[in-house]
Amino acid sequence: MGGVTGNTGTMSTGRPGDTAAPLRRVPLYAQAEKVLEDLLVHRRYRIGDRIPPEVELVRSLGVSRATIRAGVGRLVDRGLLIRRQGSGTYLAQIPERRDQPGPVGIKLGSSVARVGRLETYTSIAERLGLKIDSEHLRVEAARTTPDEADALELPVNDEVIRVSRVLLLDGEAAAWMTDVLPADIIPAGVVRERLTSHQMVLDLLLDEGIPVAFSEVEVSTALLDPGEQAGRFLGLNRPTAALMLTETMYLDSASSAEGRPVQWSQNYFLPGKLSLRLVRDTPATRDPAIVLQLSPDA
Q1: Exposure string (b/e) for 101-115, b if CB count within 10 Å is 16 or more?
Q2: Is residue 98 in some structural domain?
Q3: 67, 106, 138, 147 from 159: Cα distances, Å
Q4: Are residues 219 and 143 in the same domain?
C-alpha cells in the first residue's frame, strides 16, 4: 500500500495498479473516507471482500487510528461497508460512478425495482397480484445450531427464536421457510402474537421499528427428501430438487456499531415457484440486472 505525507498522498490496496486519487486539503477523516470511496468506485474490491485492517490503513495514510475509524465509520453509516465483530470490515455496496448509468434493476413481473432493494416476498407477491399465505406456521424458542450461531455471530447453544412455515402462493405450496432471530432482538411472545400467516418475519421487524438495513443472499440448490421435515410439510412423495436461498439480514449501523446480524433464513423453493436470472450487457457499460420472478404455477 502507498503512503501519505502531510495533507497529500496516495493509497493502494496492495494489488498491482490499485492506486486511489490523491488526498486533498480537507479534514483528515474526510480524506480517509474519500480515498476509501475512490477504491470502491473504481471497482478495486468486490462486494463481500474484506478491506485492509485499521493498522494497515493507519500506516498507509499516516493518520491516527481514530481518524481511520471515523472515516470508515462514515462509509459504514452510508451502507457501503459493514463491520463484523471479530472478523473485520467488508464491502457491502459499491457506490455508483457519476459518469455511468445506474443498475438496470430487478424485474418483478411487469415492475422494475432497483438492484439491491431489500423487500419481502409479501410486497413482491402483492405487486404481481399473487395471494400469499402460510400454513404450518410455528414460532418457538430454541438454541442455535452451529450454522445458525456462525451466521448470527452468536455462541453455539445460545437462545434464538425460530420461525418455520410452508409458503403458499395462490393456495399452492411454494416453499419451506425457516427464519432464526437472536432472542434479544424481539420477544418470542411478540412474534407469536403479531406475526400473521401472510407476513414475512422481515415485515414484522420493520413494523416493530427494528432498523434492518440490508441482507446478503447465497443461492444454491438442495435435494429435499420426503422423509425430512421440509419434505413432509411440503407433501413430497419423492426426492425433489429445490432452489435454496440462504439470507442473512443486518441491522442499520446507526443503531448497532457492528451492523450485527438480525435474521438468518433458509428458504427452499419448489421447482417453478421462484426464478432468478442474471442479465449481462456486451459491452459491460452498466451493472448486471437481476431478474426475480415468483410464480404460483409449478
Answers
A1: eebbbbbbeeeebee
A2: no
A3: 37, 36, 17, 14
A4: yes
